[in-house]
Amino acid sequence: MKFTKLTALALSTAICAPMAFAADMADEMTIVSWGGAYSNSQQKAYHEPYMEKTGVSIINDESSAEAVAKLRAMNEAGNVTWDVVDVVAADAMRLCDEGLAMEIDPDTQLAPAPDGTSAADDFGDLLVSECFIPQIVYSTTFGYRTDLVGDTPPTSVCDVFDLEAYPGKRALEKRPINNMEWALLCDGVPKAEVYDVLETAEGQERALAKLDTIKDSVVWWSAGADTPQLLADGEVVMGSTYNGRLFSVIEEQDQPVAMLWDAQVFDLDGWIIPAGLSEERKARALDYIYFATDTQRLADQAKYISYGPARQSSAPLVGKHEELGIDMAPHMPTDPENAKNTFLYNYEFWADYRDDIDAKFQAWLAK
Questions:
Q1: Which one of 93, 114, 189, 287 is at 20 to 30 Å from 358 when CA atoms are compared?
Q2: 33: which residues sit within 8 A by CB, 6+ positions away?
Q3: Which helix or strand (DSSP H or E) is residue 138 part of?
Q4: Phi-psi domain of 200 (left: phi exceeds 0; alpha: psi -120 through 50; beta: other)
Q5: How far is CA 78 from the centre of its chain?
Q6: Can you list the pairs that 192-197 forms with residues at least 24 positions away whose Cβ atoms lie under 8 Å?
């Protein structure tokens, strides 16, 4: 990373946050995320405490699903209007490779753990990109209506493809990620070979052929809130979404829905700071990131949603749900009982192949 005097000022602001530098930081910022229960958890754990501490005004934008395309367009237009953006790890890699996200030095721009452990060591292997600040470990998995599956609830992800045993509509995300992997797993490809098969044209066609077997019974979703609503309304018998969304519909809304943890796909979500910000906005973004990704703040988010904090030092601080009073640890995707058969998302694969496979997947959808 190339340091300048202004960068040094931003760093000192982020690290020390002295009030003397307040005039050098923007007093308003736009933070982009995914909406729903997830954005609410950020609002409670990060945004509200930060606004109270600093007086800054935070504007919420729920465009994370389109972050890559929108940041490309903003950069091309020379008008970047976002200050901090929540993205999945693979998208962070793409943005970093394209120069659309700034690099972060974890040991100077992120808070150490309470015992002095460096941020780099505390986050460990989850620092998968120089531009990415991990926030949570989550999974994409399936929920199902307990009253619509008969006397034998589904236990395998491959039950999603069994229309005879479990008739009815399914909800799947309108993108290839996860769907292609599940299709290959349920077409007999060993877990360790899925990405080797998927990088070939023949493997991609094989995955789409498997998805063809249920295509007429699929409701395609784009927003994380879609599947929980479809399940709550009884419009689908099972559907994929983020585990935190399912936690909300099950525990908070008390709907007749249960989790299918089998072959849940682990992924990371976290922050990037867009490239091209003014020095004042960059300083504010760095200050926010330093605050929002410290040990306590990441543990605090788990009070509101069942996503595992990305810092090792945060895990022992995870306690009960702020409103429900239930222990949150058993609802985490990383809980040993839930993680008996997980599928590890390959960030590098999707960073390299996303655009090509996206195009093929959308063409298949249009048939």
A1: 189
A2: 39, 42, 60, 61, 62, 64, 86
A3: strand 133-145
A4: beta
A5: 27
A6: 194/343, 195/346, 195/349
- What does the alpha-carbon distance between residue 114 and residue 185 come to, in Å, rounded to a whole number? 42
The number of angstroms, rounded, from the C-alpha of 19 to the middle of its chain's C-alpha atoms is 33
Helix (H, G, I), strand (E, B) or coil at 193: helix
Instruction: Note the pLDDT tens digit of each residue in 84-103.
Output: 999 999 899 999 999 999 99
pLDDT digits (tens, 9 = 90+) for 118-153: 999 999 988 999 999 999 988 999 999 999 999 999
What 3-state class would DSSP assign to 8? Answer: helix
CA-nearest of 287, 289, 268, 271 to 279 is 287
pTM for the full model?
Answer: 0.71
CB 271 within 8 A of CB 135: yes
Condensed to tens digits (0 to 9), the pLDDT of residues 305-333 reads 889 899 989 988 888 998 899 999 888 88
For the four alpha carbons of 158, 162, 166 and 170, in that order, the dihedral sign comes to positive
Please identify which residue in the block is written with the tokens 């808070």: 111
CA distances to 9, 29, 235, 276, 293 from 25, rounded to whole Å, are 10, 10, 48, 15, 19
Distance spanning both ends of the chain, measured CA to CA:
47
